[in-house]
Amino acid sequence: MENKASSPSKGLLQSEELYQYVLEKSVFPREAEFLKGLREVTAAHPRATMATAPDAGQMIAMLLSLVGAKRTIEIGVFTGYSLLLTALSIPDDGKIIAVDLNRQAYEMGLPVIKKAGMDHKIDFMESAALPVLEKLLESETNERSFDFAYVDADKVNYWNYHERLMKLLRPGGIVCYDNTLWGGTVAMPEESVPEWMEAGKKWTIEFNERIAADSRVQICLAPLGDGITICRRIK
Ligand SMILES: C[S@@+](CC[C@H](N)C(=O)[O-])C[C@H]1O[C@@H](n2cnc3c(N)ncnc32)[C@H](O)[C@@H]1O
Fold it and tell me: Does this entry carry the keyword Methyltransferase (predicted)?
């Protein structure tokens, strides 16, 4: 199609320099060495930009500490940046159910996760996420038992994940959804949106509207990384 812009950059700040300032002056000085190591390993992956942005990661680590997260779910692992930062933020007897369709990328980051001594906290499942959530819901003991969830996978299923996570999270628990500004396309005129981002734009707009109307959660769409929506279960 003509008149399509090339991919908009993921960062949503007013300039690249400002984003570098945030990274260099706030994020990188406090980033764990193992997370830096994981970013280095991930840089060799052809889809390295899929990894959670380090500034969004810094906020996720803060949220994990604030809710005292011990039992968590991660949907969309890739090479494990957000997974490792979750593991580093929860106590030694904390557990993460981590789901991804693809084990290969996870195995790229696994040596760093092991070196960090965090692998015992992780239950990795190579699977589509929806059946894993359904399976968890078969046991009543899992309802209201998770403190935190992070969703960073197929946008088309975000609402399906949300409905199930609302049962699995305890009241006061938090779920974060990544990419909820979808490269800024949610507010772009149609002719400026690259063709490959159109479906994601539609799903993201629908999801954002439904979340805004969901009285079960308190919400905040933080313009970090590619946009990250924080939902706190209030009922
Ligand atoms: C953006 S990446 C995740 C990045 C990761 N959070 C990080 O910090 O590096 C998205 C991941 O979601 C996975 N994925 C896509 N659809 C999925 C599905 N239906 N169920 C589980 N994982 C899925 C992909 O295989 C991919 O690894």
Answer: yes
